[in-house]
Specification:
seven-stranded mixed sheet; globular; about 260 residues; 11 helices; single chain; alpha/beta
Amino acid sequence: MDTDMNRISDLDIYLTRMQRSILDKMFFIDKVFEPFKYILDFGCANGELIKAMKPMFPDYEYSGHDISREMIEAARQNVPDAKFYDNWDEINIPFDESLINISSTIHEVYSYGTEKDIDLFWDRVFGSGFRYVTIRDMMFSQAENIPVRKEQLEAIRNSIYAEWLESFERVWGKIESQCQLVHFLLKYKYTQNWDREVHENYFPVFTEELMKRIPDSYRLVYKDVFTLPYTSWQIRKDFEFELTEHTHIKIILERIK
């Protein structure tokens, strides 16, 4: 995976944005009941989720993985009593006693990885024998991918964000579907890291495709599709319309064989 291409121009703003949803990223902790001892945060960035969870749930042992050495060094300073790895093969925990948490990471794997990277990612997620797999990410349903709501698109074109829409369309093509429109609406506020954000594919797979990937060795114990309240509020404030499509998914998978 190309870590240089994935470099963030304004790291402080990026990390502040991540912290805003830190509580929602703990969604799994009161919904898993089979015993496990370890929590591995995949795509841990600077370790903020682990830092928040450790004092609240001290009975677990925490580890983090990120391909960015810069992030791993920041995480080690941020949470010195947890273990952090930029090399997957060095992770030293029993996966069959572990929960792997994958939050806001799938779309980055697809955006910056090769086909080989993507296959390796899913093999690690489902082929390592984790007791639980928890996923939270941006995702759109194919069932909701209707032709673009023209009145919503027009509201954006007539707003102060029109230039960002034009920039988005130069990368992704003319907006013709609701999926494309929602894709723009999830990123139009991130102007400080715009060159990176505009090229990221927030919806690389539909919800239905993700569900088909789940192997028979896991069962679905929790699923929620939703739109972040902050996102809905911001869109109402800026464009005066209500976003009715779901933009995110949370699932919990339990290993059964």
